[in-house]
Each structure stands twice: as C-alpha cells, then as structure tokens.
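SAMPLE LOG
Freezer: B-3
Tube label: C17
Construct: single chain, 126 aa
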Amino acid sequence: MRIVGVDIIELKGLTMLDLSYIIQDMTTDINTKASEFKIIEDSKDEPDLKAAQEFVGGYVEGITFPNGDYLIINEEGKLMGLPLNPEATTLWKATFDNDNYVTGRNDFVVGPAILIKKDALKIWAS
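STRUCTURE (predicted):
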C-alpha cells in the first residue's frame, strides 16, 4: 500500500510507515561504534554543544542522574537504529530502577554517549 509517497507496511495487525527516505543519508557521518562511551572527569575536557553533537552524531539529549552526573546521548539514536551502547546501558540500569523511574531498567542506551561527572559540569550545568 502506498499513500502520498510513503510506503505503509502491514505486519500482523501492526501498521508501520516507511520514513527511511527522510533519514536515508543521515547516518553516514555518525560515530556508530557502540562501545563509544566517554567519561569526563575534568571540566577542561567538557565538550561544548558542537563537540557533543559531533561525538553522538546528531541532536543531543541530556539526562541528569540522581547523583548529579550528566549523560549526553543522541536524541534520535533509537529512531536511527544506532547500536546498543553496553557501557552506558549498564550504567543506566544500575542507576534507574523500575520503582522510581518510568522506564527504569527496561530502557537502554544506543550510540555514542558522554558521561560528565558532577564535579566537571560547567557548560552543561546551566
């Protein structure tokens, strides 16, 4: 089935839109090494917005951890199909439990990630 230039895929009662034409070339410059997990412990190493976007390969999403640390990931990483980041996911699951957070241990991190330790936060603290 095709509607106005968009393919519609039907799978056992699920309908999905094929929007790959929108992001077809967006993954060419993305750092897709799943093990890319940078930890910043000194504020002199803290990336600015442009450097963070280059590292994660797109728009950034910031998550403040309960201890004050700050995780930067690709905001659209899951939509883009970036690979699982095992180090960041392990940290996520150890921090966010199902009792106190909506997604808790059921969530995961994909693509490159930057963890800025609380004491190193200057640029991203505001």
